[in-house]
Amino acid sequence: MRNGSTADPVVQLAPSVTDQQASQQRQSTAQLLAATDANLNKISARQLSTSQQDMVNQIRNYVQQAKEAEKAGDLQRARNLAFKAQLLSDDVLRH
Predict the structure, then answer these.
(1) What is the DSSP string of 2-28?
(2) Which of 20, 49, 65, 78 is the most exposed place for a label (fewest CB within 10 A)?
(3) Is the dihedral of CA 62, 64, 67, 68 positive or negative?
């Protein structure tokens, strides 16, 4: 309370999602992370340049951040990070 007045209103920054939407986001994140993991397994058998190894490290960083975001309940961020990891792993795999 400020100077004895009423309490400040609660502001919700994250958009509310239904249970079904949350379930879909979790499923999408899991699929993206599984595809990324499959790509990383294929990549691990190859000789990588320094820049490719840096990209693999970034992919692993995105994966870790995605898992942490999901654990914290930030499902949109988790999905976005998983998507970035999957795109980057596709790129490394192609080159």
Answers:
(1) -TTSPPPPP---SPP--HHHHHHHHHH
(2) 20
(3) negative
